[in-house]
Amino acid sequence: MGATARPAAHLFRVSRLFSRRAQGGGAAETPRDPRCVPPPLPYLRHLLDRLAGQGRESGDARGGAARVPRARGGSPVNQDILAAIGAPAGFTLSDLNDGLVLANRGGEVRYYVRNSSAGFEVTRAERSEDERFGMATAHEEHVHRYLTIELGSSIRFGPELAPIWLPHMPDDLAPGFALEVEGPRATLSANGVVHGTFSHDPHMAPAVEFSWVAALPVDGLLQSFLDEKGEPFLARWLVEA
Q1: Dihedral of CA 81/187/20/168: which sign?
Q2: What is the pTM assigned to this prediction?
Q3: Residue 99 CA to chain centroid, in angstroms?
Q4: pLDDT for 202-225, tens place per residue?
Q5: What's the rounded Cα separation, in Å, for the pair 59 and 31?
Q6: Angle ∠(97,109,82) on CA atoms, nearest 5
Q7: 3-state secondary structure string, the chain?
Q8: How many Å apart are CA 134 and CA 224, to the nearest integer?
């Protein structure tokens, strides 16, 4: 689906929600937090170059064999790639006994990555609340893509870039994808291939957002959130003032 005109009031509500999404619920009027400022550009260029190279080594969403280091808890997700995704959003990566965690400074917002029966599972927690299911997938690169779009608002919040609003309503699925909703979860598939299961809200469906980036290279997706105009892949969904 292309970028469709929305009423101005609705755009304002959504941009507020988007800018709050990975900030732990803080109000949009909160002054810019210097802890969320991305690292210097040469360092980010190095991260993106490393991300591109390691992404090719780690296999792809079609099931290529992944040659990746294992965390102490046994999670086979590439730690360097997760660290590269978290860095410009102000998130750091740590080992757990049973996986990995990406957390912002102070640990108020945390994303946990663990092995699961599906392959990989990502959960999210804020402050002292219990973890909530985010997504499960058999594909490592889908974990990278999911976390990139989850942290996208934080990446753009620091340098005060205009938000990027991916389609999010159930009727806004990318062409070729199907969504099977069962209670608070939804399974995303295309051409008979299951891409993953996601938490589901009829007003903000992460699976729908994901359908638009499922085939994008992870380094290019991250670069798009870092770029003022959302280039090379997300410019069509830039929310201009």
Answers
A1: positive
A2: 0.74
A3: 18
A4: 888 999 999 999 999 999 999 999
A5: 41
A6: 60
A7: CCCCCCCHHHHHHHHHHHHHHCCCCCCCCCCCCHHHCCCCHHHHHHHHHHHHHHHHHCCCCCCCCCCCCCCCCCCCCCHHHHHHHHHHHCEEEEEECCEEEEEECCCCEEEEEEEECCEEEEEEEECCCCCEEEEEECCHHHHHHHHHHHHHHHHHHCCCCCCECCCCCHHHCCCCEEEEEECCEEEEEECCEEEEEEECCCCCCHHHHHHCCCCCCHHHHHHHHHCCCCCCCCHHHECCC
A8: 22
Radius of gyration of the chain (CA): 17
pLDDT in tens, 43-102: 555 666 666 665 544 444 333 333 333 433 445 688 999 999 999 999 999 999 889 999
Q: Are 74 and 115 in contact (CB under 8 A)?
A: yes
- Compute CA 81 distance to the chain's CA centroid, rounded to the nearest angstrom: 13
Partners of 124 in the β-ladder: 111, 132
